[in-house]
Design a protein that fits this description.
- It is a single chain.
- With 97 residues, the chain is of the alpha+beta class.
- The chain contains five helices and three strands.
- β1 and β2 form a beta hairpin.
- α2 crosses α3.
- The longest helix is centred in the first third of the chain and has 11 residues.
- The N terminus is likely disordered.
Length: 97
């Protein structure tokens, strides 16, 4: 199955070969996961070894999170990077072989 990804400043549009379209905002998933785990922005920022103001910009969508932040957050919340990026609705990370 082939999937195309169109990235805009604050959102991601996914189009599959069967014409399915979904628009999702990655920063909303980051915020929702943090709130679901009852964490503060400061706690997550400390885990990532950055200032809270920098993390806040990623979470609010003011700045795009670099790849290492996406990977670290996926590990922290035990979800897939695809879930954080809005490419899937499945939270479960891929099994390591």
């Amino acid at each position: 199955m082939q999937v195309w990804l169109f990235a805009r400043k604050k959102d991601i549009m996914t189009v599959t070969p069967n014409g399915y379209r979904r628009k999702g905002m990655k920063f909303e998933r980051i915020r929702d996961l943090r709130e679901d785990h009852d964490k503060t922005q400061q706690e997550v920022a400390s885990y990532l070894k950055m200032q809270r103001s920098v993390y806040r910009r990623y979470e609010s969508g003011e700045r795009d999170a670099p790849a290492w932040v996406i990977v670290a957050l996926a590990d922290y919340y035990r979800v897939s990077t695809d879930y954080l990026l809005g490419r899937t609705i499945e939270k479960v990370p891929y099994q390591v072989k």
